[in-house]
Amino acid sequence: MRMMRMLSFTCILIFCLLTTLSPLIQATAFNQTLPHPDPEAVALHVQRRILAATVSKAQQSCGTGNPIDDCWRCDPNWSNNRQRLAECGIGFGQAAAGGKGGQIYVVTDSSDHDVENPTPGTLRHAVIQTEPLWIVFSANMQIKLKEELIVNSYKTIDGRGANIYITGGGCITLHNVSNVIIHNIHVYNCVPSGNTNIRSSPTHVEQRGKTDGDGITIFGSRNIWIDHCALSHCTDGLIDVTMGSTAITISNNYFSHHDEVMLMGHDDDYLPDKGMQVTIAFNHFGQGLKQRMPRCRHGYFHVVNNDFTEWKMYAIGGSASPTINSQGNRFMAPPDPSAKQVTRRVDAKKGDWAKWNWRSDGDIFENGAYFVPSGLGLSKKYVKAASVQPKSAAMIDQLTSTAGVLGGPRDNGDRVFFSGGTTSGASGSGGRSGPRSTTSSSSSIFLWILIILVLYITTSDGTLLLV
Fold it and tell me: Where does the record place the Pectate lyase domain (predicted)?
């Protein structure tokens, strides 16, 4: 009888544990079971799109050779068909639909007074709706967030035609969502916040844990496109992509004034990130940057036609055997003779990282910069077989000439005040999971409590009772 009672109680504890962890388990399973494309085929398609845009440039007076911009900016009446932007993505995030097909939602109120009951007309009210929405702004705005901005699936935040500055607590959180486009906004001075209730949909309020102060956090999400934004001066990362996120493109952005720029991957031991696939294209990495452009774990990262004009420690780094495909970038090394290497393998011995597939194809290196390839990246035959000739990095000035926000200051410059700092050093694990609900962030503690209870109840005279 005693054994039956213990078995019953143990089953109840296990049921409670599974109920508590089920949101995280479901999100991880969701991203692992969805199909992942052949990454080499996607990288090849990107190169073909760039080549086609370069060829058509001669036939269009507005053409730049940048396939994203030429797709919509050559239409003088683009503002009458804003949703065409959703057809212009490239790379792993090209399927991000955003709010395509949905109504236009005009943000008229820059306030963020009540995070539990957002005011209609505010950005917070717009992004939590469940239906697809294409969100635009009635005028120039500075939106000072009280707490993290939780964005629901099938949303486009489109700042074209206005100067939109987002700052404050949080800032932007994409948590277990899909099909989000963020375009043409300034994100800066994002600071930690949380431990409060925040509405995440019209019918649900979440108890949220402490955030890190990232500019944009992508957590357990897919089909995401971040384009033509300016990001700087945040407490933690400018963009963090973690917890099984995939199908992401980060393009035409202007990064500046920051230490740890982009983190790709939650933790070396978090195996679901093996499916992470990210395209990083046409970005400008500018003044005041130190490292992580990006810092990668596990997945496949296509870094193509970016302009790296400054770093203090390294540009591209990683651990846990990620694949780095660097094509047609320009790397300008800093004056420091100890920081000329573009790449850094974090906390790894050469005997291990020598097998990682890191390759450089068509890159330009200036002021003593150099890239250390490894694995299949050492084989020129493999590189030529896997891709068309990347567009020459000599075109970087043209391809990245409009990186950052359009229609106003491209970057955030020094006009914003740095109120943050960084939370970890260059060699830290960087294993942040980003903003989380209290349920998710406390799951490990709850698990240990349950284990202790089970062991205590099922122990007889100091010996574990095996059942």
Answer: 140-337
Of 160, 175, 79, 165, nearest to 128 by C-alpha is: 175
How distant, in Å, are the alpha carbons of 16, 65, 188 from that of 12? 6, 61, 46
Question: Across all residues in the chain, what is the average pLDDT?
Answer: 84
Q: Find the farthest-apart pair of alpha carbons in the chain and give their distance in angstroms, rounded.
A: 85
Give the alpha-carbon dihedral of 331, 344, 93, 140, to 10 degrees: -60
Do residues 7 and 242 lie in contact, with contact meaning Cβ atoms separated by under 8 Å?
no
Helices (H), 110-184: 123-127
Query: How far are the Cα atoms of 2, 267, 274, 379, 418 from residue 355, in angstroms, in the given order?
Result: 55, 20, 16, 12, 40
DSSP category for residue 392 = P
- Residue 88 Cα distances to 64, 91, 140, 181, angstroms: 14, 10, 25, 11
| Per-residue burial over 322-346, b = 16 or more CB atoms within 10 Å of its CB, e = otherwise | bbbbbbbbbbbbbeeeebbbbbbbb
Question: 71, 88 in Cβ contact below 8 A?
Answer: yes
Which amino acid is present at 296?
Answer: C
Residue pointed to by tokens 């995401």: 224
Q: What is the DSSP letter of 353?
A: H
The predicted model gives 13-22 an average pLDDT of 45
199 is catalytic: no
Q: Which of 49, 208, 292, 410 is catalytic?
A: 292
CA distance linking residue 240 with residue 52, whole number of Å: 31
Q: pLDDT, tens digit, for every residue of 356-402?
A: 999 999 999 999 999 999 998 887 655 554 556 676 777 899 999 99
β-bridge partners, 285: 255, 308
Please write the tens of the pLDDT for every residue from 57-84: 666 677 888 999 999 999 999 999 999 9
- Please give the Cα distance from 7 to 359 (Å, whole number): 55
